[in-house]
Design brief:
Shape: globular
Helix content: 25-40%
Number of helices: 9
Strand content: 5-15%
Strand order of the largest sheet: 3-2-4-1-5-8
Largest sheet: 6 strands, parallel
Number of strands: 8
Radius of gyration: 20 Å
Distance between the termini: 36 Å
């Protein structure tokens, strides 16, 4: 993650700004926590190394807590993670991490003036607690909203990435003054070649392949690729 997102040009900690990250609860949230732990560990944020981080999603909290059972997950960790565990380092938990489950916890986040990172679902801003955090932060020019996942056409997340200057949340018109940033490459999805390789390794050639996850053009193009592969 670029450390300038935590500086004066992005996550304006010196101006009491927040970094709001719409995040899918399972997988993406934990991946971002891993990266933030590294940022803190390497002291990439000068003068604000102990900035608080909130995970505000009951499902994301449950998924994050699964990683507490290291003995059950040991066979699924890569060498880097195993090395961290051997050194007594929790890969995704760190000083300053706060897990929000109740609605009261969630509300308190937006009444705390201390600059912070807020990870909340849903990842495309179509539902969930993230919409409350956007309501409280989008109009603040000192804040940043960082998108770390694909935003489908027609979603609020896509509208913000495409430059919307005004949106409606909870029947209120919100002026977009916060910085809108994207971080590419944070995805758990396979690319085209990986999907083709997966299909090629199925012993019995499937009679039908349904392509249903992605933009219409992408789905149609991939379906044609599968037909001719």
């Amino acid at each position: 993650m670029p450390d300038n997102l935590f500086g004066v040009d992005g996550f304006a900690v010196d101006n009491s700004g927040n970094l709001v990250i719409p995040c899918f609860a399972i997988g993406r949230t934990q991946e971002m926590l891993y990266l933030i732990r590294e940022i803190k560990e390497k002291r990439l944020v000068h003068g604000h190394g102990d900035f608080p981080v909130w995970v505000d999603s009951p499902l994301a909290v449950e998924a994050t807590n699964i990683y507490d059972n290291d003995e059950e997950l040991i066979d699924f960790y890569d060498k880097e993670t195993l090395s961290l565990l051997k050194d007594g380092i929790d890969p995704i938990k760190f000083k300053g991490l706060n897990l929000s489950v109740t609605s009261d916890d969630s509300k308190r986040i937006n009444f705390d003036n201390k600059p912070k990172v807020i990870l909340s679902a849903s990842g495309m801003c179509e539902a969930g607690r993230i919409r409350h955090h956007l309501k409280h932060n989008l109009w603040r020019k000192e804040c940043t909203v960082l998108f770390v996942g694909y935003q489908a056409h027609g979603t609020l997340g896509r509208m913000l990435i495409d430059g919307a200057r005004n949106i409606k949340l909870f029947s209120e018109d919100i002026q977009v003054r916060a910085k809108i940033e994207t971080l590419d490459g944070i995805s758990g999805h396979a690319d085209k070649q990986m999907l083709l390789d997966w299909l090629d390794n199925i012993n019995t050639v499937p009679l039908k392949v349904f392509v249903n996850h992605g933009d219409d053009n992408s789905c149609e193009n991939f379906a044609e690729t599968v037909k001719t592969a």
